[in-house]
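Progress against Task 2.4 (sequence-to-structure conversion) is shown through the following example record, which the project officer requested during the mid-term review.
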Amino acid sequence: MDHSKNSLRVGKKRGRKMKKTLFILLIAMFMVIPFVLNAEQKTLVKSDVDSGWYCRPVLLKLTTIDGGLAGLGGIGGNWMIAHRVTLGASAYWLMTPVETDVSGAAHEIEFDYGGFELGYVFLSDRKGIFQYTHW
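Structure tokens generated for the chain above:
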């Protein structure tokens, strides 16, 4: 009996090690494939167009409300000019419950907001972009 328990433990350890190795290989493969397949093309869309519109969903934007963590969701649309500057508008709403204590009574905060945005895009010649947006 002891021998079978030991071999079972060894088998589980090998299985975990194999899963971990396969996971690392998969991650490495997905990191390398885009560089190999698209060595020449760096941007998402190869085009001579210097400006254009795009819409985007915001699945989760984190912020703090009354000292607690809150998640916002939303949608936005922007006009990108010369692959660097964006002008647009967005609307967001609270996706996670936030409770606050007002005059001794607990209240749940609910809100949504929207407005115009001005943004600057860094590394616009890459597939993934980094954008700073100011309301």
